[in-house]
Amino acid sequence: MTGIKGPLLKVECGSSTIEVWQGDITQLENVDAIVNPANSLMIMGGGVAGAIRRVAGDEIEQEARRYAPVPVGKAIVTSAGRLQPRIRHVIHAPTMERPAMRTTVEKVKKATRAAIEVALDKGIDSIALPAMGAGVGGLSIEESTNAMLDAIEEVLREKGKLPSRIILVGYLEHDARKMIEVVHRRAAKKDTCIRVSS
User: Fold this and answer.
1) What is the pTM of this model?
2) CATH code of residue 137
3) Which of 10, 12, 61, 134 has the greatest number of C-beta atoms within 10 Å?
4) Residue 177: is its pLDDT beyond 60?
5) What is the DSSP string of 153-185?
């Protein structure tokens, strides 16, 4: 099993910190919520969803399925089962309508935005996201990371705030390295909130 390593990179976005970590998102410590890139039916079969269910317990899936169907662009919050007290909530944000479908950059952006907005609504101050849509969804790590950063910047522009800590988690070392490259490229642009901490 892959543990968890980080932060490998820390940047600022508004008054928030964005961090990149590498490993198994369920192994994080002291995080308010982790995000499950769900399907609208809330069936936690494979990928990150299956990993969360295996560690947290089947009750997470049972709780989430009471809300189904959840459209792409909406998100729900459940308890974190056996992940507590290290992780207090799971945010289920669909990136696809049915299990094991391909997804798109636009759907990942909508899912990320929904996860961040529900975190703000519920007073969740630290949130960890895997590479949304990059598993069975078929997107590359670069496409996934860019879509997530687009959503983060969009929420900041429109709402004026973000959770104070946003953690992007690449499962493999290669994934985390790609995430770091994308964040650095973004930080080099003029029209971005993202800047490398001094």
Assistant:
1) 0.95
2) 3.40.220.10
3) 134
4) yes
5) HHHHHHHS---SEEEEEESSHHHHHHHHHHHHH
